Structure formats: C-alpha cells, structure tokens
C-alpha cells in the first residue's frame, strides 16, 4: 500500500513496505505530539511493551477539518525502542488492521479504541470495539478479539463466531455502548477485561483462552466522574484503573467544562475491585476527549494520551503524546503523581500586538457549563466549533440581556484596539438561540480603578465572521478591560451571545 502524502510529510522514510499490514515509516519526533505535522492523526493510544520496545496501537482519525464526528477506519501503530517525552526515533505502521478485515461480522469504519495484550501463550491479542454489520441490538458496538504472532500483526479473528461482548453477548441486559476495552493478563495468568463509556464501566474475568467470558458482569460505580477510556494495570500488588472523567463545574478538580475530560484513577487490591477513587493525574487536554494508557519501559513509566495539538489538529483529528509518569511510594497504595504535560519546542513565532493570551479571562455572569471562558484568548478560531471552543451566555429561555467579559493583566498594558469573533446559530435580532449581539463596547479600568469607556472608537462590528474588523480607540494605559455585550431580543427574552476569540491589541509588538 502506498501513502504518497504521508511519505512526503514524514521527516524520514526508512523502512520499506513488506506486506500491506506491515508498511511502515520511520520518523524523528521532537516531543509532543509524537507525530506533530498532521500527516497522520491518531487517537486512543494503548501501549504495550515487548522486549524493551514500546508499541502503541491507535485509531486513525481522518475527519475533515470542520467535521465534528469520528471518522476512523483503521488502526495504526507507533513503535519505538527509545521512547522519550522529548522525542526520539519512531516507526509508524499506518495500517495494522481494519474492522471489516479483522472480523467477517464487522462493518467498515468505527475503528475505536483498541488494546493489544500478550497472552500467556506468547501470542498478541487485540481487543477491538467495532460495529456489528447485522446487529439487532440498539447499539451496534461490540468487542471482537483478533490474534497475531507479532504485535504489529497480521491479526486474524480469534473468535470467528462473533464478538465476545455486545448488548446481547454474553447475555442480554447490557444496554451500554460497548467500547473502550482494557485487558490485563495478571501474574497468575488470569485475564480481566473492563469496558464502557458515557459513565458506564463494566468488567468480566475472561478464560485464559482470552476470548471466553467466565463470570457475571461487575458494574463499577465508585470511580468519581468516570466517563470512558478505562486503563487497567497492576504495579506491585495494587491494581490501578486510569480513566477519562468529566465531573465538571467551576470548582471541579477535573474539568470546568462538560465537553472536556481529565484523566483520573482509582485503585483496588483485587482485579475485580472494589475500586477506590484516588485523584486526577492529567488536567483537560486540547481535544474534548482524553484517553489514557500507562506503561513501564526501560525503567521509566509513561502516560500516553491524545491531544488536538498537531498541525491542523482538532477534536476529531487527534494526535498521541507521551509524558513521564511518576509514583509516590511513600503512600499506600503508591500514588500516581500529577503528570507534567510537555510539548515539543515551538519553532519561533512572530511577535504579536494581541496581549489577550497574557491576561486572566473571566465572565461576570456565570458561564454555562458547556462553554469555556478560556476559549476567549486561546488564539484558536474553529470554523465549526464545539461549545467549549467559545464562550457563550446561552441558557435556554433565560439568557441574560447584558453580559460582561473581563481581561486582567498583572502589569499595565497600553491598548489601542480590540476585536471579537462571534459565533451565532440564529440571525441578528433573534430572541432565542445564539445570535450576534445587539451592541457591544469596551471599557478600561483607569488609574482610580473606575471603568471608563474607551474613546474615539471606530465602529464595533456586529457581523459573524472569523476575520472581523479591528475596533481602534485612543490608547489607554490599563491593567484591565471589559467588554459589555448586549444581547438581541426583548420583552424579557434574549438570545445568547457567543465569542470564539477576543483580542486586546497593544500599541507595541510583544513576543509570544
Ligand atoms: O476514539 C473514539 C472515542 O473517543 C473513544 O472510544 C473514546 O475513549 C474517546 O477517546
């Protein structure tokens, strides 16, 4: 199989094609995301170590830039014998498997989060959530198992009679979406599988044949904020369950917005629980989903996860990253320390007049939980944004008439301009949904801490465009500005107002 664009984009091309599944490309990484040029987006990493080499199976994200949906048709694999958060040498196998070629009963597409583990027989077992072609279940996702003699494949169906888990297998009554399997082969050879999303986490013991469900289902409800993406592992005598959590709120230790997820974990002294929630170990990342895997390789533990940080990346164009995971062995059970997220050094960026990223952003009105005040100054303007990609005031029929956004700096800045990128799903003048504001203006805090309107302004544009005209005003020296946004509507019912980005322009250039 030939991947001409990928070949051009990767830094180095070293390995030639052997068979389709084993085509591979070598590249050098400078840090996170591991492959940062956007040539091959990867989500849902699941690490495996064999002979001191790290193998990370991932889904391949292929959604177009402005499509808000998973478009995942195959799994690929990143391999390195010298992994490091600073980069290193990697080989990408872009096509390890596809749902319909692994399983005769599976549809193409939906190559969701898979994990490969080594069985006691030395073979490699891939637990893959796919959609069943002729499913009569309400939700067609099912977990199949494929087997291979090598981590990179080729994989063949280990249970040709069908999935090992679905809404009707091993028994009816499972009404969850059966994705995100995580499997542990314990030191005594026993095998355990957990899976589930949207707050549901189920588990079984499997037979050592790796495919037969042995026990009744275990339902885990004690892991605070559990959303999806479980990762089961064992260190010393303790079982750890890492997972994506989304218990959201202004004071949540996990995430301020309901669309994002943090990575948290719980522990147990037995593989089927009971599980005790422990802590958050990775705050929200730039993609709405977060998905952990953790492994020890060459004496160092790593957390692997995905972000939207690669070139052209997004919530459905994710890229995997890897950072050092450390332990606090003074605690019992040993605690996982908060992981320090790192990025590859940025190539030099041009200085900018926009000092909004250096400000603290806040909203005087409470921000509804699906929106994010930090989106105001993240310098990311998405054409087709999800709610946390913008700040918004929409509360069904209770959206406030007046909304105030504030930027505060630790130092005095001299400003002479501002711009706002609005988002709207209703036309100007609407009294429902999200519409452009009826009017807006900017005030600055003067030397006496009083708010004053900026003067001699050019007009405040009200159009919905991702490249709005800048509002110029007489320079002000200040430590804070605020934008007053008056919503459209009337008679007690107003539309929401939404802002994708709010720039505060300095009179002088600033380095980033
Ligand atoms: O990649 C599809 C889904 O996104 C996974 O199943 C979840 O864990 C989330 O990462």
From TrEMBL:
Gene Ontology biological process: carbohydrate metabolic process
One protein family per Pfam: Glyco_hydro_43
First and last residue of the signal peptide: 1-17
Key words of the record: Carbohydrate metabolism, Glycosidase, Hydrolase, Signal
Site feature: Important for catalytic activity, responsible for pKa modulation of the active site Glu and correct orientation of both the proton donor and substrate: 180
Superkingdom of the organism of origin: Eukaryota
MF annotations from Gene Ontology: hydrolase activity, hydrolyzing O-glycosyl compounds
CDD domains according to UniProt: GH43_AXH_like
Statement: the UniProt record of this protein carries the keyword Isomerase: no
Active site (UniProt): 61, 228
PANTHER family: ENDO-1,4-BETA-XYLANASE, PUTATIVE (AFU_ORTHOLOGUE AFUA_2G04480)-RELATED
Family according to the record: Belongs to the glycosyl hydrolase 43 family.
Protein name per Swiss-Prot or TrEMBL: Glycosyl hydrolase
Originating organism: Aspergillus avenaceus
Lineage, broadest ranks: Eukaryota, Fungi, Dikarya, Ascomycota, Pezizomycotina
